[in-house]
Amino acid sequence: MNNVRMSVRQKSIVLIGFMGVGKTTIGELVAKKLYRSFIDVDQEIEKDFGMTIPEIFEQHGEAFFRDYEKKKTCALAEQKLKIVSIGGGAFLQPEIRESCLRNCIVFYLDVSWDEWKERLNILIDSRPVLQSRNIEEIEELFYKRQDAYSINHSKLTVNQRSAEEVADFIVDSLKHAWDMYEPMND
Ligand code: S3P
């Protein structure tokens, strides 16, 4: 897979990881710290349809959502200088994975199962993928998805860290990487 020839400073930053890991909160903070705009792909999809994600799942089904998610995420991943949070299931689609890895810098926000399961109650109402599964099935999904998430440019474990700490880590590591490259003129 060839990387798009673009200065590393111009690339958008994409946050991936399981539902509820904090992609949106952390992404907003990173965007503020880097003076970039933040895009939450699920929020963009909700705007496009004038419906919430659970409503889209209910009215159109998951296959329809995944197809739209693929088009939307790939299009947004081609923009420069953005901080983008993508849906927890998006990175399982090969086209989305390839587009994000080619065009952007991909950070995987990891969390342990023990830490994550404490968040289930606050997530369940807004996550249709969780509603159709019992706790054992959710745990299976959690571990199964780690294979796809493991293909990234940088991974960090969120666990006990605050969103602010994680955002600072991302910003510091990006600034460090940016210092290693001369900006290109393209
Ligand atoms: C999904 C995650 C959600 C949303 C949809 C499906 C998933 O996004 O895209 O409910 O399959 O993991 P978040 O990761 O932002 O919760």
UniProtKB/TrEMBL annotation:
Origin: domain of life: Bacteria
Cofactor descriptive note: Binds 1 Mg(2+) ion per subunit.
Main location: cytoplasm
Keyword Hydrolase in record: no
Pathway the protein contributes to: Metabolic intermediate biosynthesis; chorismate biosynthesis; chorismate from D-erythrose 4-phosphate and phosphoenolpyruvate: step 5/7
Cofactor(s) this protein requires: Mg(2+)
Sites where the protein binds substrate: 42, 66, 88, 145
Molecular function GO terms recorded: ATP binding; magnesium ion binding; shikimate kinase activity
Subunit structure: Monomer.
UniProt-recorded name of the protein: Shikimate kinase
Originating organism: Domibacillus aminovorans
Taxonomy of the source species: Bacteria, Bacillati, Bacillota, Bacilli, Bacillales
